Amino acid sequence: MTQRTLILALLLLMSAAACSRGDAVFPTPMDINMRATEIVLTENAPPSGFDTVSFEAIDANLTRLPGWYYEASLSFNGVFARTPRATEARTEMAVWYNQVANARRVVANVSGDLFGDLDAEAQAPAINYEAVRLGPDVFLMRDGLCLTGPDADIVAAADLSAGSLLGGVVQARSMARRSTINGEQVWRYDFTLDEMRLPGISLGATGRILNMAGELWVSPQHQAVIRYYVNMEVDNAFVLGSDLPVTGTVALRYDLYEVGQVPNISVPFGC
């Protein structure tokens, strides 16, 4: 092939390519923002096996750990339903655990009036107690009196748990967000109202939960919830065993501290 013929052939190929360029397939341009999001999600993803979690009792799995301390509370502020009468109540507890000694200490405080028994100006006396379990033995210190033995109320006081007060979450999904809370590396999880267990709230036939916002932070290392905070608006609901329905704001709080540290738990002072 002569040089002239070669040049003509190349020109023809270039012309054909130019004519057919409209049908050519070109790579899809990269979405920079989407790519950046993918990188962030990947870098903050929880360890394998923790894309979803389940803690139907918010303090589940803790007896696997040698020691810890947590605080939990459920509070209500609002009115008796369909009335202007204000009311409030709060139950809070602190729990310590020593696995080796099979020991558990509970300090609890219950205050407020959700039963409508008091006049508007009256204030219900707070209930405070300390209960300790040391192996098979249980002790309850309340109102300056020490009670011990297998009585069901004493045992129940020593075994009171955050799960029995706050319930938990049947299923939650990773939000690919991590942080350090209470000294532990944790990941945040999202959940819906339908995925929550709420033993402290009963809706009855006409009660409603109007809205809910919450956060769940989990330590995969310890397979435990480190923080659980929820705020919700309830209407015509029964809270903390109230006889009368109430309308207002419910706040759930739970924080786990000192994971791995073994507390010294002894018989309550005065027993």
Assembly type? single chain
| Overall mean pLDDT | 87
Helix content: 10-25%
Unreliable residue runs: 2-22, 34-40
* Count of the separate structural domains: 1
The biggest beta sheet is recorded as: 14 strands, antiparallel
Radius of gyration: 30 Å
How many helices? The count is 4
Question: Can you write the helix and strand succession as a string?
Answer: HHEEEEEEEHHEEEEEEE
**Sheet/helix structural class:** alpha+beta
State the end-to-end distance: 111 Å
How much of the sequence lies in strands comes to over 45%
Number of strands: 14
Q: Give the overall form.
A: flat
List the helices and strands and how they pair.
Elements: H1 3-19, H2 32-43, E1 52-55, E2 67-80, E3 86-98, E4 103-112, E5 127-134, E6 137-142, E7 145-148, H3 152-159, H4 162-166, E8 168-181, E9 184-190, E10 196-197, E11 201-202, E12 208-219, E13 224-239, E14 246-257
Antiparallel strand pairs: 1-8, 2-3, 2-14, 3-4, 4-5, 5-6, 6-7, 8-9, 8-10, 9-12, 11-13, 12-13, 13-14
Description:
With about 270 residues, the chain is an alpha+beta fold. It has one domain (about 55-255). The chain has four helices and 14 strands. It has helices at about 5-20, 30-45, 150-160, 160-165, and strands at about 50-55, 65-80, 85-100, 105-110, 125-135, 135-140, 145-150, 170-180, 185-190, 195, 200, 210-220, 225-240, 245-255.
